[in-house]
UniProtKB/TrEMBL annotation:
It comes from Marinospirillum insulare. CDD domains: HDc. Residues 329-544 form the HD-GYP domain. InterPro entries: HD/PDEase_dom, HD_GYP_dom, PilZ_domain, Split_barrel_FMN-bd, T3SS_YcgR_PilZN. SMART domains: HDc. The lineage of its organism: Bacteria, Pseudomonadati, Pseudomonadota, Gammaproteobacteria, Oceanospirillales. Gene3D superfamilies: Electron Transport, Fmn-binding Protein, Chain A, Hypothetical protein af1432, predicted glycosyltransferase like domains. It holds the Pfam family PilZ. The keyword Nucleotide-binding applies. Keywords: Bacterial flagellum, c-di-GMP, Nucleotide-binding. This is HD-GYP domain-containing protein. Signal peptide: none annotated. Residues 1-12 have a biased composition (Polar residues).
Length: 610
């Protein structure tokens, strides 16, 4: 803890910032990759040098444990780095401070006429949530336009000295993706890396909300990234020329975005929406997602949710087969499927959940991967404590990670993967290799999101250290790793294999709660709350013996529409009928959980047209 000296010469302890020390290689890799992907600047300070310098992360190598740093600015910092003078860095990302000490360059090279430096992973990273840097994400379906570099026209008058109306002009159009008290992220069409170099400043930019409200701010562009697949540039901007009045406006808008994300994530469409996000007529504008190519738009429109799910299952199968055949993995196709799943999840999550719960034992591995991906994103959107719950890029990475989380099982012999009984010690050791194999395969793929490497292994870890492959305990497992472990076990429990039927959901919940020494209790409770006591696709019984599969939920995640299929008292099938529970008298609404295996009922009956 540092010491400060008062005027009278006495010393006192400085309050030390609280936070978390990240010591695992996975955790360090994850945070450094986050800084790389978001083009977040690092503030460097060298030992015995008063000045500070700036650099950025160009690459992160998990396997060998090093990062590549871009050239140091100002340029005379290059001499310090080349001499391997020890340094530390601070960086701010999504409301978090990330810092490390005792680093030094172990190599220098020239890339595209500029120096780059190889630096070994720090032994630990300090991670601290800083509210003043909190970034509120803009949900994918909310269109907030940004006009960069607005030029206000000179006043022109006619021959009678009347002012002639003039429209302002601007240099670039974009969409707001997040906002904080300090800065924002903007997406704009095309490659703007040359057009808008780092540190470009605009004294006037318009943020235009759906209701027509306009905010005029100044920004400095601190980094420019480019997504070649989407042909979209991501601009990381710092707000400049701020005054107290503008500060208050920004703070209000950040709060409104937070409320909007909570409303969207909870699925509570009855919650009031901010006036900022309504159009001039007081209605919510029609959905307008991220910029897409014409071909992508057509594909989204023509594919049904069932077709998207089928495409996703086939994609996972292709990934596994490519791994077995030692051919290039179809990563581009996996990202394409990821985008389709995210679009369907945001459009009608209940329909996608229903389809992902209709399973066949022959496709267990592939369908399980898709289901885990969908549930991970669905639970994340619901989690109001997660500041990135409404961040489309984060949700996209989570779905991709879920699709890939079990790829390594494709390299494990089928006799072990599909064994009906308990694995012996030798077989268990072989099976436990699948998570490391998955991480190794994914780490070799270009542009792999850090969360995919995390979930590859952490979905198999347990709080008490009994998991694998690294026997991590409690705090060493990331929050998303804890959630993935719960979802992975839940999905495996509730879906049948060739040698056994899946558990009823009510029993699966009880078993999850009984595993609280191994699985995160908060994640279990979150899962139960979001999926409901009677999840979509589960079987329920009425008091008269009628059995029905749950087809849809109301806003409180209670069954609202069920499909009648069987009567257990007469042991006879019923004519299939979709029943809205709202029209029933209260005396007939009481439901109890049932086991479909007991009556040899399959929930694929939900997909049949009436």
């Amino acid at each position: 803890m540092g010491m400060t000296q008062s005027k009278n010469g006495t010393t006192s302890e400085e309050p030390k910032e609280e936070g978390q020390l990240i010591k695992s290689r996975e955790g360090i890799y994850r945070l450094m990759r986050r800084l790389q992907v978001k083009h977040t600047p690092l503030k460097l300070r060298f030992d015995s040098v008063a000045d500070h310098y700036t650099s950025m992360v160009l690459a992160v190598n998990f396997k060998e444990g090093y990062i590549l740093l871009d050239e140091v600015t100002p340029k005379w910092g290059d001499e310090l780095m080349a001499k391997a003078i020890p340094f530390h860095f601070d960086s701010y990302h999504d409301g978090c401070k990330i810092s490390a000490e005792k680093l030094q360059a172990v190599g220098r090279a020239i890339k595209e006429d500029s120096p780059v430096y190889k630096v070994l992973f720090p032994t630990e990273l300090h991670f601290l949530q800083r509210r003043q840097f909190f970034r509120a994400s803009v949900r994918l379906s909310l269109n907030i336009q940004v006009r960069l570099g607005v030029k206000k026209p000179e006043i022109k008058r006619d021959e009678y000295d009347n002012i002639i109306p003039q429209s302002p002009t601007w240099e670039h159009d974009g969409l707001l993706r997040d906002l904080s008290a300090q800065g924002c992220q903007i997406e704009a069409k095309g490659d703007l890396r040359e057009t808008l170099p780092k540190n470009t400043e605009y004294t006037s930019c318009y943020i235009i909300f759906p209701n027509g409200h306009l905010l005029d701010i100044g920004i400095a562009i601190r980094h420019v990234g480019y997504d070649e697949k989407r042909d979209v540039s991501s601009l990381g901007c710092q707000l400049i020329n701020m005054d107290p009045k503008l500060d208050r406006k920004i703070s209000f808008i950040v709060n409104e975005l937070q409320r909007d994300n909570a409303r969207s994530s909870s699925g509570n469409s009855s919650a009031p929406i901010s006036e900022l996000f309504l159009d001039a007529s007081g209605k919510e504008p029609s959905k307008n997602t991220q910029p897409e190519t014409e071909e992508e738009t057509k594909e989204l429109e023509k594919l049904t949710t069932e077709e998207v799910h089928h495409k996703a299952v086939r994609c996972v199968q292709k990934l596994v087969n490519s791994l077995r055949d030692k051919t290039a993995l179809p990563i581009d196709e996996a990202w394409e499927v990821t985008d389709l799943l995210l679009e369907k999840l945001q459009k009608d999550r209940q329909e996608l959940l229903l389809i992902s719960r209709v399973r066949s034992s022959a496709n267990y591995l592939y369908e399980h991967s898709v289901s885990v991906a969908v549930l991970l994103a669905d639970q994340t959107m619901f989690n109001q404590d997660n500041p990135r719950s409404g961040d489309p890029s984060y949700l996209r990475d989570i779905i991709f990670a879920g699709l890939c989380h079990d790829l390594g099982k494709g390299l494990i012999p089928d006799r072990i993967v599909n064994k009906s009984g308990e694995l012996n010690e030798t077989e268990a050791k072989v099976m436990h290799k699948h998570s490391l194999l998955t991480r190794e395969v994914l780490s070799r793929q270009q542009g792999m999101p850090a969360i995919a490497l995390t979930l590859a292994t952490q979905n198999c870890e347990r709080l008490d250290g009994s998991g694998h492959p690294e026997h991590l305990k409690g705090i060493s497992i990331s929050p998303v790793g804890k959630l993935a472990a719960v979802i992975d076990v839940f999905d495996a429990m509730t879906n049948g294999r060739s040698y056994r039927a899946g558990l009823p959901y009510a029993l699966a919940y009880k078993r999850l709660l009984a595993m609280r020494d191994k699985l995160d209790l908060a994640s279990i409770q979150q899962l139960i709350k979001r999926q409901g006591l009677y999840p979509i696709g589960s079987l329920v019984a009425f008091e008269n013996g009628d059995l029905a599969f749950v087809k849809r939920h109301d806003q409180n995640n209670h069954p609202s529409v069920v499909r009648l299929v069987f009567n257990k008292n007469t042991n006879q099938p019923l004519k299939h009928q979709d029943l809205k529970l709202a029209v029933l008298p209260d005396s007939k609404k009481k439901l109890l959980p049932e086991d479909p295996a007991k009556y040899q009922l399959l929930n694929d009956l939900l997909l049949n047209e009436l």
